[in-house]
Amino acid sequence: MTFLSPEFGFQGASLPWLLAMGAPSPGAPSAWVQLLPFVLVVGIFYFVILLPMKRRQQKVQAFLAALKVGDRIVTSGGLFGTITRLTDEAIQIQIADKVRVDVSRNAVVGYQGQEPVAPESQS
């Protein structure tokens, strides 16, 4: 039993005609030419969105790795303080006399009096 038998609703068409349906017409562009706009959009997306994002992330990672005790920093929550202790995940900052707060290392956005390392939004 074949799928081309009359029981499956196939009536009177020949196999070469079916194969010709999948072939491109003589005047149609090749598959590579049709794929070119997609490749261009992906390339533009990479250079406009992904590459700057990757560079900014590397800059932030380098900034966070370079923090040391005594640096005067600003957190994303708006706390100004001086680093008193560093760990791999957290930073202890002194925000007033005898007031120390532990914050995530990722909460630090920059040094006091300078622009943030990675601005929140790109305009």
Strand runs, count: 5
Spatial separation of the terminal alpha carbons: 66 Å
What is the mean pLDDT? Answer: 82
How much strand? 15-25%
* Principal-axis shape: rod-shaped
Given helix and strand content, the structural type is: alpha+beta
Number of domains: 2
Q: State the helix count.
A: 2
Instruction: Return the string of H and E elements.
Output: HHEEEEE
Backbone CA Rg: 31 Å
Give the spatial strand order of the biggest sheet. Answer: 4-3-2-1-5
Estimated helix fraction: 25-40%
Low-confidence blocks of residues:
none
Largest sheet: 5 strands, antiparallel
Tell me what the structure shows.
- The protein is of the alpha+beta class and about 120 residues long.
- It folds into two domains: about 10-65; about 70-115, SH3 type barrels, CATH 2.30.30.
- The chain contains two helices and five strands; from the N terminus they run H-H-E-E-E-E-E.
- The chain has a five-stranded antiparallel beta sheet with strand order 4-3-2-1-5, with helices on one face.
- A hairpin with a 2-residue loop joins strand 3 and strand 4.
- The longest helix has about 35 residues, at about 30-65.
- The N and C termini lie far apart (about 65 Å).
- The model has no long low-confidence stretch (mean pLDDT about 80).
Note the topology.
Elements: H1 15-22, H2 31-65, E1 72-75, E2 80-86, E3 90-96, E4 99-104, E5 108-111
Antiparallel strand pairs: 1-2, 1-5, 2-3, 3-4
Care to give the gist of this entry?
With 123 residues, the protein is an alpha+beta fold. It has helices spanning 15-22, 31-65; strands at residues 72-75, 80-86, 90-96, 99-104, 108-111. The chain folds into two domains: 12-66; 68-115, SH3 type barrels.
